[in-house]
Amino acid sequence: MNLKKLSLIFLALTIGTQALATNSIEFGFENEQYEEMYNDSDTFNPYVKVNLNPKKGSPLLLELKYMYFHQYGKNRNEGHDARFKTNKKRVEFFASGYKYKNNNFTFSPKIGFRFEVYDVNRTEKPKSQTDRMFNLRLFPNMTYDINDKVQLYVNGFVGPQINRVQHGTRKDHSYDANSKDSAIYWHDWYQEIEVLGVKYKLDNNDTFWTSLYNEYKRNEYKENYTRWQLRTGYNWNVNSKLSINPFIRYDLSYVTTNDEISSDHGKEKDSHETRIGSTVKYKIDPTLTLGGEIYWQNAKTEDYKGKDNPDKNRMFYKLSITKAF
Questions:
Q1: Global pTM?
Q2: Cα distance between residue 313 and residue 296, in whole Å
């Protein structure tokens, strides 16, 4: 049974058996569009997400999400290039509900996983492609209220990542250029953490926030990514139904280091991204909410020889509708 069928069956069973306890169900899509030079990476990503409180009166909350990534931009390539472009399926599952509170300090962790399956063409010569990815994620969510207006917070996730990749992706000591088999790498790591955030609530209940963000990704026998980013935004409650939340993300540092076993022997390359956009929510009625997001992102690109490549600009669109029960 393939992943898509399994996910849909699980989703149907979940909705059917827990209908009275379901918090919400959300349907939506994301669309990523790049400028012409990179537009073979354009994707359309529909998804469904369910939030559950499986037992009435219990603090336990469950989240299940299924998303399909259709890389329609690959249709612009033919023959040799087209086979290196992939669609993928993603399943996420998280559990939360535990809360520890001590005076002004609150700790409310969440744990779960992300699992992805890639549609990879294996009919021709091997190429660097990922088959499967499993990422265990722990969210150590913490807040500290300085007063009724100012709050400090830590948000994000950390966790090990397991990748099954085609042999050519990681040229470790077992590398065989003629092999079409896959290898499993158990020691990858991925984290995205707002290590220090500050929220300030205004008298009109709008909120201004800013945070220092760190992203670190380690791919064994390949590359390490380290990013430090400044994030800031404003949550504007236009009225009782509409909220608009503009934001900006600005890279302070984003360095990719090639693993010492690779042909580039530990060389580094710099990248830099700026993202400007906004999310929006509109409450149609007490149980029905329309959501959306739009942003523009500029990414500087550089190779390991220090040569700058053309910027990679992206537009992102998201639309969703959520029904609460």
A1: 0.86
A2: 7
Q: Which of 65, 72, 69, 73 is nearest to 36 (CA)?
A: 73
Could you tell me if 85 and 75 are in contact, meaning their C-beta atoms sit under 8 angstroms apart?
Answer: no
b/e sequence 177-201, b meaning 16+ C-beta within 10 Å: eeeeebbebeebebbbbbeebebeb
How confident is the model at residue 85, as a pLDDT? 55
Is residue 193 within 8 Å of 159, Cβ to Cβ? no
Name residue, tokens 């409180």.
Answer: 53
156 backbone φψ class: left, alpha, beta (φ>0; ψ -120 to 50) = left
Q: How many helices (H) and strands (E) does the chain have?
A: 1, 18
Q: Return the structure tokens found at 305.
A: 């020889």
Burial 69-107 (b: 16+ CB within 10 A, else e): bbbebbeeeeeeeebebbbbbbbbbbebeeeeeeeeebe
DSSP assigned state of 169: G
Q: What is the pLDDT of residues 76-122, one digit of tens each?
A: 765 545 555 578 999 999 999 999 999 999 999 999 999 999 886 65
Instruction: Give start and end residues of each alpha helix (H) in the chain.
Output: 3-17
Give how far Cα 272 sits from Cα of 23, 60, 227, 251, 253, Å.
39, 39, 9, 6, 7
DSSP label of 65: E
Provide mean pLDDT across the span 50-55.
92
